[in-house]
Amino acid sequence: MSLINSIPEGYKSGFISLIGRPNVGKSTLINKFVGKKIAITSPVAQTTRNRLRAIITSETSQLILLDTPGIHKPHHLLGERLVESACKSIGEVDIILLIFDACFSPGKGDLFILNLLRNKNLPVVVALNKWDLLKKEQAKIRFIEYQDLLGNCSWPIYPCSAINGNGCDFLLEELQNKLPLGPQLYPPEMTSDQPQRILLAELIREQVLLHTRQEIPHSVAVKIDRIEELPGKNQNTKKNPVIGILATILVETKSQKLIVIGKGGSMLKLIGQGARLEMQLLIDGPIYLELFVKVSQNWRSKPSRLSELGYQGD
Ligand code: GDP
Ligand code: MG
Q1: Domain range holding 132?
Q2: Does residue 174 sit within a domain?
């Protein structure tokens, strides 16, 4: 059966790019919209590496959200690929969701992004995220500051919080309204276009960033070596099989390896425990996880290594 045949008249679909500086909450907002964690987030800037597509299907529309790496000044090959990928997506979508961090007054970086979008002739919706962190008086001032920044661009502005969900429904509704007519492009049950292997690797990388903070900034990559179904406790019913996952954490130096492993393996244990919990939510079943740490010098500057780990330059 063709999917397109089953689409009611007036169905809408389209691509939406989330654009914003690093750390404004793009990935958190995607997870809020989708209702589960498919994009990793972290207090450390530049967490997102892959161009993830999140898919939100309703009876009347299908939105395909592109989570892009934040726009910033690149320092090495990986950085260049990330910025390339963010800028390229601007020209390929139906709507731009421009996200600002409302904790801060608009700055030079925000103006830079605004100028990238100003003459593109694309519908833009603006989200002022992290609104939960503002006091009432502050919020009033901040709203006016961003209104002034946007000047004569008549883009709708939505204060919201990707953490507690306030304002997110209105934002989603606005995006749905602005979609062009079109068929369902993905099966309705699909929420992400990333292979599970990449999602699982990302959940481990998230825990490394979370627990090592500034010490292992961006020199870490994760490779899933093996995923296999292990027999569950109840062999007869074969219910709840355990999924065994073997993965390698790649770092750039020996000292980083020592940090990731920690005293007597304590850090690696923390990382493994955190990742296992997140993976169980994703897979909805028990996980057995084994982690290795390996030094792979300068992996960020080697095109073959980048491609192997899934960081395509497109
Ligand atoms: P990205 O780089 O734009 O993808 O940003 P992330 O989604 O990784 O978020 C960066 C940090 O901001 C994380 O620590 C999030 O928990 C936090 N964050 C994101 N959205 C909100 C929000 O609405 N309110 C608050 N208080 N924190 C947020
Ligand atoms: Mg992100």
Answers
A1: 12-178
A2: yes
> Cβ atoms within 10 A of the Cβ of 228, count?
11
Q: Is 178 in the pocket of ligand 1 (CB under 6 A)?
A: no
Q: Which ligand is closest to the CA of 101, given by its number? A: 1
Mean pLDDT of the chain, nearest integer: 83
Q: Enumerate residues with CB within 5 Å of ligand 2 (an ion).
A: 26-27, 48
What's the average model confidence in pLDDT over 112-126? 85
For residue 45, which atom of ligand 1 is closest to its CA?
Answer: 2
Say which CATH number the domain at 209 has.
3.30.300.20
Assign residue 96 the CATH number of its domain: 3.40.50.300
DSSP code at position 19? E
7 is written with which tokens? Answer: 């689409």
Query: What share of residues in the chain are helix, strand, coil (percent, to 5)?
Result: 40, 20, 40
Tally of structural domains, the chain: 2
Residues 37 and 146 in one domain: yes
* Same structural domain, 140 and 285: no
Q: Which of 28, 100, 132, 209 to mutate to test the pocket of ligand 1 (most atoms within 8 A of CB)?
A: 28
**18 and 167 both lie in a single domain:** yes
What share of the chain in percent tops pLDDT 90?
43
Tokens of 272: 């493994």
Residues 6+ apart with CB under 8 A from 277: none
- Whether residue 35 contacts residue 115, with contact meaning beta carbons closer than 8 Å, is answered with no
In three-state secondary structure terms, 188 is: coil
Residue 95, classed as helix, strand or coil, is: strand
pTM value is: 0.72
Count of other CB atoms within 10 angstroms of residue 104: 14
Whether 284 and 136 map to the same domain: the answer is no
Token pair belonging to 244: 């065994």
Q: How far apart are CA 305 and CA 292, in angstroms?
A: 18
